[in-house]
Task: structure prediction
Amino acid sequence: MTHQQTCGEALVKLLERRGVDTVFGIPGVHTLELYRGLARSSIRHVLVRHEQGAGFMADGYARVSGRPGVCFVITGPGVTNIATPMGQAYTDSVPMLVISTVRATTDMDKYYGRLHEISDQRAVTTPLCAFAATVLSPEELPGLIDRAFAVFESARPRPVHIEIPLDVLVAPVGGDWLPAAPATRPRPSGADIEAAAKVLGRAKMPVIIAGGGACDSGPDLTRVAELLGAPVVTTAAAKGVMADDHPLHLGCTLPCMETQELLGEADVVLAIGTELAETNTWCDRLTLPGAMVRIDIDPAQIDNIYPATAGVIGDAAAALEALASLLSGGKPNDTAAMEKRVLDIRHAIPKSDPPLKQIHRRVLQAVQANLPETAVFFTDMTQIAYSGNEIFKAPRPRSWFHPNGYGTLGQAMPAAIGAKLAAPSTPMVALVGDAGFQFTVQELAVAAELGLHITIILWNNDALGQIRDDMVAGGIGKVGVEQLNPDFDLLCQAYRAGYLRPDGLDELAKCLLRTQAEPGLWLIDVRQDVFS
Result:
């Protein structure tokens, strides 16, 4: 008897045709038809230990590969568990496709107390997505998948959630579905480019701010900066977009007083692919008295809290290339004077480092000196990573990742696992805090099970260090910020990981080198008190 494929099986085939090679998830009674399809496909399934881990792994996979991370989750708790990673991916513009089930169409407007039932599941994910949709018939599903990939390919990439009712998932599908042609990024209009060039061409002291949306435009960004004699400041998402030793590069220093003072003197600020959010600047609002030119693929950013004098909607690389063409005949500004100003600022910033940041600087310098330049870092919400956003010298774009926007704990280690699956030959490093690490510690089992070579650097101060320090500074008694940590050595033994505990910078260097010489899963327990 010929097997009649179900909607779930047809969906897996369509994803395979879309180039999906990995799916993260945990099989459940509601997703069996999706797994029937996976069993007959070439797509690798990664069994996570919690749906939050699935989302974070999909996030890391997407950040490194440039392709959407894909997750299969069950109705109800699967969706609510993955909501936090979706929020992180939403604020950081990461493509993620979450396929879930939902109660049957016959139960949609009722409450029967079905297994995993939730009254309005899509309402949970709608604020965390480019769009969320319910498939009411198999025929609707291919179009929704095409729409999701159009977001990933041609708009500001963000998660998409598609929920499939249980009766639709098992419905028969007669033929195979074919994907639509790939979408392309919008090109900026000539009129908008000319208006932006006119504002920039009159500038005497322009400054450029580059965000994550500029990551693919490094050469064009550098050319525009040189044509304008403009210093370039990056957000954490854009680290590495410009050579660190370029004389016009101020690095990821937006929160620093010296850089903010420079921005306050600028007569034009060119902001590329950035929201200029609080988590980029760590102030309520930058003082930007001059004109503002904005380039962004997201039209909503052109007139956000910093409205544009001239706005360009479209792909950043195409916009900067066109701008460079129009600016190339103009009279250059006093580049030498600005290069000296940049150098002075770069020298001044470390002088105001508080004691803890000085410790972070020494440790981060040791880390950078003893790991391959090809390494990719996933960092968590931890004090040493906050310092690293400024201090660490990213050799290229997408080599240093930080969960800036949503700011969730526990992202780094599972994200590094997903990234390693996307780029097996690239050294992967997770920089985590002792408290945040324990949010997703169970995903160590996935790395061990798959035999992945990942180095985890654990910043250990037996506390929620930033919140503890904020409490002390605010005259608040320390409540709930100092925890009993596990024996990390025994924990590593349980998860078949190597454990190292350096007693100083020289020993840290040896530990780092060992983790690269001996492939496997490693945890380096870096105790703050040892390095103080």
Observations:
- The mean pLDDT is 95.
